[in-house]
Write a sequence for this structure.
């Protein structure tokens, strides 16, 4: 991915695809950009909170209907799961936008391609910044409200905290790559509303937003985890946080997420290369 | 003649949206599937438990589909009003205001989203299925209730869409805020009120009136008493609640338009 960066001497060690300072600047630009949308942040927090109450009461009723736990989750685990899900929605960035696909349709994407940094890296930098701001606002506040209104469960194993942070980072990467691919569909379709809808649908339903995936039959669950990136986006980090699985299970979730990061970023690279060739054909 | 102008606007929209064919098709399928999600969730939840806050699957499914059809109809007719905020931001609302037609009908017509027709069909099919599953006796009273409930639900949610959109007059970036009452309201309405508790139930079910959209009519159709102790005749209250909602929405809209100051673009 040494996209256009000038290389004179042979590097002594494998160089990162982009200088750290450049990436740092992109991240901080993303952070600052989203921190200016104050009204939208407040509105988003309110929405996450309302849906948190909704889902929480529903899942607690399910557990009560079974006389205790559901899907192997105790009531306090279910409540925690709901509020972490709501917080992660905006942090990981599950709902896709059409930033890139709009630029593809209008042709503005050409200026992205002219930059000396690979477009995937540019957009990733911005997205990491966005996620950082979201973690401080849209993750923290709903979780706090949830903790005040319901009995939530703090992790009992200290190792869970770093594992959860790592898992959220990996979830962000998978989600970002998928959203990039969805937007890149516009190189061919000139419009990404359809693929975007499909992603939103799959990432929320098959990611475990409406109900924990363990409510599904076993074979479906296995197929989802192994065959799709969706559980890596929400259910993975959430299962780690509520300690639904043992420490080896937590590491296995992380391993699966790493696998999906590799696959989706490789796809991004392939698609981007094909798209650039296609743009040239169009004369763009 | 005014109606003719709106018809032209709708037709132009339909033609424009059918231009990107593949995307339109995916979009239509997607939006239909999205409304099915809530029902899928209920089916999955009842795989895990036999009763949800005192209600069996067939009963809960009937309440969910009653709410779902009402919402889908309102989403088709008024859901696009939420685009108001992009008009306020870009200044396009100025152009709409100077035209010699009503602002609200113009907004509804210019953004008419054809893909949402699929949602309404899906909602009607699901409700028919739910009526069979729940063995609803088709007495004249029940039939009247089955027609009235989704209609009043549509009016109620439509009022919410309009009232929610007016927030954009004061708060340009309000974005998702209205969603918590429209889409959140739909999900809230789809479950029996016994699921919820505390202040949250009091505010959403009775304060905002969501309990009267599908829950009380549903109880009447199921010949069940309210476990929360409300009288049975509340099942007939949805027209009154919908009328009240329309009144409040119109008031909010008028106040909002009067408050509107162009962004100056």
């Amino acid at each position: 991915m040494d996209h256009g960066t000038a290389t004179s001497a042979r590097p002594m060690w494998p160089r990162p695809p982009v200088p750290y300072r450049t990436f740092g600047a992109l991240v901080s630009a993303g952070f600052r950009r989203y921190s200016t949308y104050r009204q939208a942040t407040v509105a988003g927090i309110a929405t996450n909170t309302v849906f948190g109450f909704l889902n929480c009461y529903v899942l607690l009723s399910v557990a009560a209907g079974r006389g205790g736990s559901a899907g192997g989750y105790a009531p306090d685990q279910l409540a925690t799961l709901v509020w972490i899900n709501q917080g992660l929605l905006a942090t990981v960035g599950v709902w896709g936008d059409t930033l890139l696909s709009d630029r593809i349709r209008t042709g503005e994407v050409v200026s992205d391609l002219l930059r000396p940094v690979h477009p995937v890296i540019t957009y990733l930098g911005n997205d990491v910044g966005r996620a950082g701001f979201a973690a401080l606002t849209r993750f923290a506040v709903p979780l706090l409200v949830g903790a005040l209104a319901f009995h939530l469960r703090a992790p009992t194993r200290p190792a869970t905290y770093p594992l959860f942070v790592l898992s959220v980072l990996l979830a962000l990467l998978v989600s970002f790559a998928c959203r990039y691919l969805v937007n890149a569909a516009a190189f061919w379709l000139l419009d990404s509303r359809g693929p975007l809808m499909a992603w939103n649908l799959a990432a929320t339903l098959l990611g475990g937003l409406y109900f924990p995936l363990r409510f599904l039959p076993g074979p479906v669950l296995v197929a989802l985890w192994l065959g799709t990136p969706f559980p890596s986006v929400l259910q993975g980090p959430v299962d780690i946080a509520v300690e639904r699985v043992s420490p080896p299970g937590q590491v296995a979730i992380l391993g699966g997420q790493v696998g999906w990061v590799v696959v989706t970023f490789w796809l991004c690279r392939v698609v981007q290369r094909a798209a650039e060739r296609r743009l040239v054909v169009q004369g763009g | 003649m005014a109606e003719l102008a709106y018809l032209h606007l709708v037709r132009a929209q339909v033609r424009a949206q059918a231009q990107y064919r593949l995307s339109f098709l995916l979009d239509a399928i997607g939006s239909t599937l999205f409304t099915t999600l809530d029902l899928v969730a209920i089916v999955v939840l009842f795989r895990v438990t036999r009763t949800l806050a005192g209600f069996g699957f067939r009963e809960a499914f009937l309440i969910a589909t009653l709410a779902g059809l009402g919402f889908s109809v309102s989403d088709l007719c008024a859901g696009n009003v939420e685009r108001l905020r992009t008009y306020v931001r870009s200044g396009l609302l100025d152009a709409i205001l100077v035209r010699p037609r009503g602002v609200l009908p113009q907004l509804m017509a210019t953004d008419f989203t054809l893909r949402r027709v699929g949602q309404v069909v899906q909602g009607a099919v699901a409700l028919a299925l739910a009526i069979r599953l729940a063995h609803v006796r088709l007495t004249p009273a029940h039939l009247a209730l089955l027609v009235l409930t989704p209609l009043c639900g549509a009016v109620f949610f439509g009022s919410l869409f309009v009232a929610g959109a007016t927030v954009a007059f004061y708060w340009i970036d309000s974005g998702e805020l209205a969603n918590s009452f429209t889409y959140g309201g739909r999900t809230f309405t789809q479950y029996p009120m016994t699921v919820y508790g505390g202040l949250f139930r009091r505010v959403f079910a009775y304060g905002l009136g969501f309990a009267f959209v599908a829950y009380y009519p549903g109880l009447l159709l199921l010949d069940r008493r309210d476990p929360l102790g409300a009288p049975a005749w509340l099942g007939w209250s949805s027209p009154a609640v919908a009328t009240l909602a329309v009144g409040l929405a119109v008031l909010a809209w008028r106040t909002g338009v009067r408050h509107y100051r162009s962004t100056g673009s």
Chain A touches chain B at residues 37-40, 42-44, 46-47, 49-51, 53-54, 57-58, 61-66, 70-71, 149, 189-195, 197-198, 200-201, 204-205, 210-211, 215-216 (CB under 8 Å).
